[in-house]
Write a structure and sequence with these properties.
The chain has eight helices and nine strands. It folds into two domains: about 160 residues, Rossmann fold (3-Layer(aba) Sandwich); about 70 residues, no CATH class. By secondary structure, the protein is α/β, with parallel strands linked by helices. Helix 2 runs parallel beside helix 4. Strands 5-6-7-3-8-9 form a six-stranded mixed sheet, sandwiched between helices. The chain has a three-stranded antiparallel sheet with strand order 2-1-4, with helices on one face. The longest helix is centred in the last third of the chain and has 17 residues. About 35% of the residues lie in helices and about 25% in strands. The protein is globular. A hairpin with a 7-residue loop joins strand 1 and strand 2. The protein binds adenosine-5'-triphosphate. The site of adenosine-5'-triphosphate (ATP) has 10 residues, from helix 1.
Length: about 230
């Protein structure tokens, strides 16, 4: 079963000025798909298009797996200045209609995991960049969705937080959640992704497993993802 199927013919910010073209891929239940490509290639535009945040989209996007469809973890934290971490978490819980017992249980686990228990009643404007990013992850993980769309998670997180995040993501994948992860950190992407979608200049230039991508890039059987990326872009 696919938790996400994307068939975008065209999408962009202004009418008749498409930024991406012919972008098609899927994310199966339990799969992690790495969305990779150079700066300005169209990764964020693809993510915005599939989340329904762009007006000029031609094509179809289908979410599978029933309720609690999708959690989006943005690269730039989105936060309310006058709300504490705990209040942000409560807001997310109410948006996703979690009942209070489930909310408290998950909220406690997530605060513990990301070592933010001491910070729950603080305003996030006083948090470091990494702490703000952890806050976005906590909020994203709370509803236990079928699909996670995660934008560049590795840049602000320290090694310990990265490991905790990946551990949690793996647990979620075992439960059947799929993940679409946009990133520039290719060695990590290579290690954790089941498949890749490589975007360049607004369109998909390669896709599939690492072996598929190596073949499409005419790279050798041991070539790292970085070399394939370089060859294809
Ligand atoms: N709000 C916007 N309005 C108009 N054009 C935009 C807007 N945001 C991005 N673009 C254009 O869309 C193209 C693709 O940008 P996009 O942000 O999707 O790239 P990206 O692959 O996410 O890059 P990066 O790795 O740098 O984040 C670029 O040419 C960019 O200038």
């Amino acid at each position: 079963m696919n938790v996400l199927t994307v068939n975008i013919a065209e999408a962009g910010y202004e009418q008749d000025k498409p930024v991406i073209r012919d972008v098609s891929f899927y994310v199966g239940a339990g799969e992690l798909v790495g969305l990779i490509g150079p700066n300005g290639a169209g990764k964020s535009t693809t993510v915005k298009a599939l989340l329904g945040l762009l007006r000029n989209v031609k094509g179809d996007v289908a979410f599978g797996g029933g309720e609690r469809r999708c959690a989006y973890v943005p690269e730039q934290p989105v936060l309310y200045e006058y709300m504490t971490l705990w209040e942000h978490m409560q807001l997310a819980a109410s948006v996703h209609e979690l009942d209070d017992r489930v909310f408290r249980e998950r909220a406690g686990e997530l605060l513990r995991l990301f070592r933010m228990e001491q910070d729950r009643d603080r305003l996030p404007t006083g948090f470091s960049k990494g702490m703000q990013q952890k806050m976005m992850l906590i909020i994203g993980f709370m509803p236990k969705p079928n699909l996670y769309v995660v934008d560049e998670p590795f840049v602000g997180l320290d090694p310990r937080a990265t490991k905790d995040f990946l551990t949690l993501l793996n647990e979620e994948r075992k439960r059947g959640a799929g993940v679409l992860m946009s990133t520039h950190v290719l060695d990590t992407a290579e290690r954790i992704s089941d498949r890749f979608v490589l975007i360049n200049d607004g369109t998909v230039v390669a896709g599939g497993t690492l072996a598929d991508v190596r073949e499409q890039a005419r790279c050798g059987a041991d070539a790292p993802l970085f070399d394939c990326f370089y060859a294809l872009t």
